[in-house]
Write a structure and sequence with these properties.
The complex is a heterodimer of chains A (287) and B (316). Chain A has helices at residues 2-49, 69-77, 80-111, 117-127, 132-145, 152-156, 163-174, 178-186, 191-199, 204-220, 223-228, 237-248, 252-284. Chain A has 287 residues and is an all-alpha fold. Chain A folds into two domains: 16-67, no CATH class; 77-284, Orthogonal Bundle (MetI-like fold). Chain B has helices at residues 3-9, 30-56, 75-82, 84-114, 120-135, 138-149, 155-163, 177-202, 206-214, 219-249, 251-258, 269-278, 283-311, and strands at residues 59-60, 70-71. The longest helix of chain B has 31 residues, at 84-114. Classes of the chains: A mainly alpha (287), B mainly alpha (316).
Chain lengths: 287, 316
Amino acid sequence: MTIDASPDSASLATAAPKAGSARRFAVHAVMVVLSFLSIFPIYWMIVTSLRPENEIFSTSLWPSNPSIENYVFVLTRIPMIGMLVNTTIVSAATALLQVVTGLFAAYALVRWRMRLSGVIHGLIALSWLVPFQVTMIPNYVLASRLGLLDTLTGLIVPNAAHAFAILLLYNAMRSFPTEILEAACIDGARSWKILWQIVVPNMGAPIASLSIIAFISAWNEYFWPLLLSRKPENSVVQIGLQMFMTQEGNLWGPLMAAAALASLPILIIYLVLQRHVIESFMKSGIR
Amino acid sequence: MTDIQADLARPLTLARAPATARQRGTFTVQPWLYLAPALCLLMMWTYVPLVEAFQLSFYQWNMLPTAPQRYVGLTNYQRLFALPEMRAALWNTLFYIVGLFPMSVIIPLFVAIWTQDLEGRARTIYRGLIFVPMIVAPVVAAILWRWLLNEDQGLITLGLETVGLGRIGFLTDPKYALATLTWITGWKLIGFSTLLFSAANAGINSSYIEAARIDGASRWGIIRDIRLPLLSPTILLLSMMTILFGAQWSFAYINVLTNGGPLKSTTNIFYLLWEYGFQTMSAGWSSAAGMIAFAGFAVIAAGCMWLTKRFAVYDN
């Protein structure tokens, strides 16, 4: 075997560097194209937002005299700061509530064996498959009956529990060593205490993942705010952006500045927590 | 990846939770208290509305709280099936889904296999860059592409003109608008899918590959007989996601960029629901169309889960 293989590997060794470097070049070429495709539109948004009005249609890769006039225009024309604050509140509250409701539900399913737990698990998972557009009319009617139209509460409450959050935490909790839970039970600890003192402190990673995903998804959410919002100052930044586009759609500089402001918080989170963000999304897939 | 997604694929078989405190036969209140917030919210905002939408699909109602709801039986459904709009929307839905496949499954799969031996710094940098579209808000993505593709001075329009292809109305020509929106929807997914496939590919036990190589398998043979089968759970999962959610993902782009036009060429089933519901104010039609969509996608979902069970190869 070794004797047979040796002439083969020798010829491979001489051929390898050449084929290898050509291949490596092709590999990099593919990734460079894909990266360029992914990032260029965002780069172009930032460049355009920094161009003064008389340069807006220029195709240079960097504005010759960058200015922030577009940003000033946006901030004076629409209540951008207010909307950013609203969006932050809505996203943070949604993420927090999804973590809490998810923890409770997952804990109930993991800790107790109930005759109905299979049914409940199915109900939770299947709710993911109901398209929001199918239930939108009854949801809208309910929200208006509860006086939630044009409020931030109305944007938060319907998203306070999500199948995805429950299942993510359920799966994480299932791998929690049962001996510890049992030992705590024997010690007579209350389930509430076990949850907060034993389970939650060991669930840091999944809770962080869920918070990141829930926050970003809530930040980017568009459809429900579209139904609920009336006035821009009571709304979130996605709606403000859409309204601005409808009114001033061809003021490209200010429009790009508005889009940049709306994505800035998410991009900053991404820059700081890059590895965590990617891993959270990868581990839990598309939402 | 994917405990969660495997879960979605097998929601009903997962009842075998390891219970710590077995309390068979006796009813305990505590778990229900913990379940209450989540279950109440899901009931209130998903399941009860689903039933209400089903009821509404047999009524005629213009969404005004004061207006009466009139029972019309199956008329809404009959009308819908007779409407050419509905048929066109269903075809467009299919187009969105099929058009997404190259970007959400096929290209990422081959890019991931092709670039599998990238390592170190370069890999980290590419990873960081190609993931970005995933977290960009749909409204922002719509605006970015509207600017790049705009018919007067968009960078891509100018570029095509320089090359001599002339101006293309990416969003205003019925011939191209649907493809443009599909592209924008796919733009957000292509990098992310690539990362998912890369991770799954890197997880393949290298001893299989070694063994095949020693047996004299060709590069393509290894891909076909080892990599693709072992990647099948990810392939099936992303395909399922594309089929089930692809048309929903494109909603924001339709609403922001084309409003379903030009000439209804970009209206898919979910946009049609929205138009009936909140523009023509016919709750009955919208609900009936919603029920058709829901039933259709439920059947497809069941089919996908069956396929996953049947064909996915797991490396135990």
